[in-house]
């Protein structure tokens, strides 16, 4: 939002055999906050054990920040959803869905786990280091770098100036917009390249190379899969 205020709603959910046990477990979870020099750091401090008989616990954050703020998220076993942030967005996610929408600033994401990542409306591209992630990108501008191991990458029509996509043991799907094609450089090791766009091709051993030399093209796509 446009207010110069950070607003947090934090929900603690605890499962236990009885309500009393759930309340005791909830009281062991602490929310630590530190505000210094324009930086706000909020963290969940979990107990070593929940104390609940066969139960579990989770802490959900709903955060509104000034639109120009930068956001850093460190999340384990949970989803991360960010929209309409104009500052930078940095995410370190383990085992959770990631949804990014209408972000104006630089984006950096590290994620692992077989979950979906969707990014739409990134004005400054981003850097994505992924493991096992099912990643989808749409309406991306600027420069996009994606490295994914054991996951998939899907690029819908992009406005990027430059994209470098690397996938190991996973597929890459690229949908080009109508109009003049971008410059394309593609390589696949121990796999194959399929394209409805005419590409010049060369096979060397277990590697296949493909290229579309488009002089004066405003876009460049570099793709490598293994």
Total of DSSP H or I helical runs spanning 4+ residues:
1
Tell me about the largest β-sheet.
10 strands, mixed
Share in β-strands: over 45%
- Low-confidence residue ranges: none
Major β-sheet strand ordering? 5-7-9-11-13-15-20-17-19-18
Q: Can you write the helix and strand succession as a string? A: EHEEEEEEEEEEEEEEEEEEE
The gyration radius over C-alpha positions equals 22 Å
Helix coverage percent of residues? under 10%
Structural class call reads mainly beta
Mean pLDDT comes to 93
Note down, in words, how this protein is organized:
Helix content is 4%, strand content 54%. The protein is mainly beta. Strand 2 (30-36) and strand 3 (39-45) form a beta hairpin. The radius of gyration is 22 Å and the shape is elongated. The two termini are 43 Å apart. The model has no long low-confidence stretch (mean pLDDT 93).
């Amino acid at each position: 939002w446009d207010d110069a205020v950070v607003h947090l709603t934090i929900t603690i959910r605890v499962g236990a055999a009885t309500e009393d046990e759930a309340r005791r477990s909830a009281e062991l979870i602490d929310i630590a906050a530190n505000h210094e020099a324009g930086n706000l750091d909020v963290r969940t401090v979990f107990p070593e054990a929940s104390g609940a008989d066969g139960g579990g616990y989770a802490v959900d954050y709903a955060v509104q920040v000034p639109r120009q703020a930068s956001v850093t998220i460190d999340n384990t076993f949970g989803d991360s959803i960010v929209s309409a942030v104009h500052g930078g967005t940095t995410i370190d996610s383990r085992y959770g869905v990631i949804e990014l929408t209408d972000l104006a600033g630089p984006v950096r994401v590290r994620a692992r786990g077989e979950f979906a990542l969707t990014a739409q409306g990134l004005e400054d591209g981003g850097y994505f280091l992924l493991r096992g992630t099912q990643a989808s990108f749409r309406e991306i501008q600027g420069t996009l770098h994606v490295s994914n191991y054991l996951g998939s990458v899907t690029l819908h029509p992009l406005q990027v100036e430059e994209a470098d996509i690397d996938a190991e043991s996973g597929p890459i799907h690229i949908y080009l917009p109508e109009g003049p094609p971008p410059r394309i450089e593609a390589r696949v090791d121990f796999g194959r390249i399929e394209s409805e766009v005419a590409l010049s091709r060369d096979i060397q051993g277990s590697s296949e190379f493909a290229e579309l030399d488009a002089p004066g093209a405003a876009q460049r796509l570099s793709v490598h899969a293994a």
